């Protein structure tokens, strides 16, 4: 079965997040991975645009029950109608999760991915989570470039 | 955007349902539609096999949070983890819903599709619903062959 | 633990459905059962009003993520934000399901309750479901009065 | 309508979290608030026990579709069957959210509550979230005692 990578990030993102997301999308498509995202604007639109520019397949898992506001670069649209509960569906669909930038919705996806504990979770920019003693939580991989983000998923070991 | 058709039906289906599902899957793939289904066995497996035999794309929207028991003909797997609530997601993702055969789970999908009221719903075999006066409920299209099922969706008017 | 009974029915119901729902709510409250419903208007409002008139507790499981349009007789409000997926939550929360009247949303609840197969499902009025040979599906109990609906749940055998 | 306060926290919690949760439950019940929680063990069990000790009402919003592992102090049990998507339902049901202790599941609830942005969110112990410049995110209230946690919800201004 084809590799599926979920890319999470805010609607309102920085221009650096946007450019990182576009590049992550392009690189994933080049490696033949299906990109899964939330299907709206910001990081979601950028990763979709990047993947489509390289001929990739992008699945948008929408919170709404219809296609309103879905971005035009999605190959397949899943209007769940379950609101923010779609965040967990994005995460459950992934062989690896790449988180770009920070927002409360994005943090819920990162947390659900770590809660699930089955697949690599890589952060590229964004927020930091500390335990009650002020130490970084173990388990989240950190990357500083799109290339490194893909490498840290461990899905393409030969490269 | 590509046309998405959801095909619903029971795990435990008749051999006629299975052969209808396989043919519906094949015909949908030939017309370039993405097939969406529940991703497990019975009608779901048959429609996936039919679509794949014609080179089509099949999305499985699973009730489980992981890929256990997912059928091997799925192109893309969405393990929702929301249980039977995934039935509504299958329906919301459709430009048309084709229902093959009968079971309580299948009936919930038919009912949610009619409740939504946005897309054609076509039944091929299966159960019948009567109002309190014993009359068939209006709105559901009935077909007696896979070809007729596709025709009654109204999605390919030129054919 | 207290007995929980879910009562399902349409927003747009007949006056007979409404009066049945009110009486079912009252009887359930008198027996000390918590009433669970969809929390909006029609049958949902009537069963809530009936239960509250007898001092009962009513939980409204809303489709929306906020309390907008919730009916005022609810004791506890659960705005799920998962849309029609809340229908399955109503059903899963029940020691018995009583269905009053008919609509596509109501039928989805009846179907999900039968799919679950764990608790009695009683219909008071409403639609009829036939198998492919035109025979009524076994398993659903039918009642013609509110008193009989409660009796057919089997939850109060001593009465 | 009665005030509903959701209390979130890990299954595996510290003894301090547990004692804080028990006290928060007791205080909420004394003020007449309905306590909403995840319904299992750890912080969820402690807040339920505390609330019940003061005669309060506790609603458990379970991830499972049945009552297995539900803790015995729940007044009302909602087995959603939607898995971790129940976290958002807990949050949507709240007039205020109190988060006790830290875990990835708990963090997802805190994040969803902040994402929603409609109600106060108070942390008592647990993890810290920093933005990309290492600064604490604004909006989350911090308390160091159960009494202070209730005060910071702002729901009982007269006290």
TrEMBL record, chains A, B, C, D:
Family matches, as InterPro entries: CHP00725 (IPR005268), LDcluster4 (IPR041164), LOG_family_nucleotidases (IPR052341)
One GO cellular component term: cytosol
Pfam families: LDcluster4
Domain of life: Bacteria
Protein name: Dethiobiotin synthetase
Naturally occurring in which organism (per UniProt): Planomonospora sphaerica
